[in-house]
């Protein structure tokens, strides 16, 4: 995705330690817009005229009443990466071209809006030039609207697998360098009925790619908002997407490659379920079911597990993800607790039903007591606070105060 959000003050400030690779192959401050793929990106006066910079690869700083178009998810990803690795210099190489189908991202592929432009070949040339100054640690991908109703899902899967393999081959990347994708949105509505109709099919195709390709991850963008045009994400959503890309990247890179095979073998027969309790597409793989067990921390026999434990399974690896509300309800508890549950949320769904979510990341809660939530509302992020041996969700369902096995009740 090229990114078309309207810049706020934060988007126009440099980020210490984060630069972007401009179109003249020089490193510049990460001030939006960093992706300048089309003429309608940049600084515009209130009457719609574009302010032309003496240097075409730098946007004109906006004056009062001006609007800057072109915020994407990349800068947020870079900022969070820098926060996590404060000793590293972070370089962003924007290569997205708005409105392109996946075929434009094969060698020799053509930008349908500019037949002189070859998005894949240009991207490889630019990234190779940037590699002189550093190492590629991630590829971020958001694309697919242009394939809705035009590329069959099976063909999309084949093309996208080829895109990933080509980037890895042509840039000399190890397969452990994450290729992180995002789903399409759900705001296309009546204005773009073709995209609205076929977006779920493209999403399902991306999910198949994630499940079958080493170190390919897919994050959710279905709950994000448009900028008022039913087509482009608004600025807050671009930031949220950047954060989701970063969290997926971090989760993928925190699993040692040698542990993957052991993990797959260990959980080969574990129950799994598709559920809206997890934000990102995939299944909840149950690492510890509801019922009697030997407690993983105390070792106590015959302890009773009042909920079930699990994490996101993308078909190849267990991952952290956002934690979402089981059903509509009202939040009764949401706090960074010091007890065994750690950072936890409880929701009253009425009719005697209560759901509980334990061990979330401290400081990650998006809801507070008294908030109303819908099915799938993001509550916070998976973590390992409280009595937990690793990142996972403990999900508990109670009816009239009695815990019940949640597995059959959370499928969607
Ligand atoms: Zn548990």
How do the helices and strands line up, and which of them pair or pack?
Layout: E1 5-6, E2 18-21, E3 27-29, E4 42-44, E5 67-71, H1 74-84, E6 90-92, H2 119-131, E7 139-141, H3 153-170, E8 179-182, H4 193-212, E9 216-219, H5 235-253, H6 257-266, E10 272-273, E11 283-288, E12 291-293, E13 303-305, E14 308-313, E15 318-319, E16 322-324, E17 329-336, E18 343-350, E19 353-360, E20 372-373, E21 378-381, E22 393-399, E23 402-404
Parallel strand pairs: 2-6, 7-8, 8-9
Antiparallel strand pairs: 1-5, 2-3, 4-5, 10-11, 11-14, 12-13, 14-15, 14-22, 16-21, 17-18, 17-20, 18-19, 19-22, 22-23
Bound molecules: zinc ion.
Please tell me about this protein's structure.
The chain is 22% helix and 23% strand. It is built from six helices and 23 strands. It has helices at 74-84, 119-131, 153-170, 193-212, 235-253, 257-266, and strands at 5-6, 18-21, 27-29, 42-44, 67-71, 90-92, 139-141, 179-182, 216-219, 272-273, 283-288, 291-293, 303-305, 308-313, 318-319, 322-324, 329-336, 343-350, 353-360, 372-373, 378-381, 393-399, 402-404. Strands 10, 11, 14, 15, 17, 18, 19, 20, 22 and 23 form a ten-stranded antiparallel sheet that branches. It has a three-stranded antiparallel sheet with strand order 1-5-4. Strands 3-2-6 form a three-stranded mixed sheet. Strand 17 and strand 18 (343-350) form a beta hairpin. Bound molecules: zinc ion (ZN).
């Amino acid at each position: 995705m090229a990114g078309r959000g309207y810049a706020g003050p934060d988007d126009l400030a440099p980020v210490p330690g984060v630069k972007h690779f401009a179109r003249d192959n020089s490193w510049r401050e990460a001030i939006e817009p960093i992706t300048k793929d089309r003429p309608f990106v940049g600084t515009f006066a209130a009457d719609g005229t574009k302010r032309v910079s003496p240097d075409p690869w730098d946007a004109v700083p906006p004056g009062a009443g001006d609007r800057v178009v072109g915020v994407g998810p990349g800068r947020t990803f870079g900022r969070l990466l820098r926060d996590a690795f404060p000793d590293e210099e972070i370089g962003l190489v924007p290569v997205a071209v708005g409105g392109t189908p996946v075929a434009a991202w094969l060698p020799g592929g053509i930008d349908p809006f500019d037949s002189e432009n070859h998005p894949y070949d240009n991207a490889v040339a630019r990234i190779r030039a940037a590699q002189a100054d550093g190492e590629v640690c991630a590829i971020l991908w958001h694309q697919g609207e242009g394939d809705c109703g035009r590329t069959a899902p099976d063909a999309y899967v084949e093309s996208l697998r080829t895109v990933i393999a080509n980037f890895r081959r042509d840039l000399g990347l190890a397969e452990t360098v994450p290729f992180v994708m995002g789903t399409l949105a759900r705001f296309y509505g009546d204005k773009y009925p073709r995209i609205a109709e076929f977006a779920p099919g493209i999403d399902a195709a991306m999910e198949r790619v994630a499940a079958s390709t080493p170190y390919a991850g897919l994050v959710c963008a279905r709950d994000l908002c448009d900028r008022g045009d039913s087509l482009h994400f608004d600025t807050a959503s671009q930031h949220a997407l950047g954060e989701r890309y970063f969290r997926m990247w971090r989760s993928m890179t925190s699993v040692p490659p040698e542990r993957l095979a052991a993990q797959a073998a260990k959980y080969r027969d574990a129950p799994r379920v598709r559920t809206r309790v997890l934000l990102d597409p995939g299944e909840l793989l149950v690492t510890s079911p509801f019922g009697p067990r030997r407690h993983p921390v105390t070792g106590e026999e015959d302890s009773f597990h009042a909920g079930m434990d699990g994490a996101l399974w993308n078909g190849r690896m267990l991952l952290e993800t956002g934690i979402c509300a089981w059903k509509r309800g009202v939040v009764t508890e949401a706090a960074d607790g010091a007890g065994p549950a750690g950072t936890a949320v409880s929701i009253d769904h009425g009719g005697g039903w209560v759901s509980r979510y334990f061990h979330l990341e401290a400081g990650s809660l998006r809801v507070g007591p008294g908030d109303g939530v819908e099915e799938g509302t993001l509550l916070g992020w998976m973590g390992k606070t409280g009595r937990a041996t690793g990142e996972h969700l403990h999900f508990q369902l109670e009816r009239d105060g009695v815990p019940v096995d949640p597995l059959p009740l959370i499928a969607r």
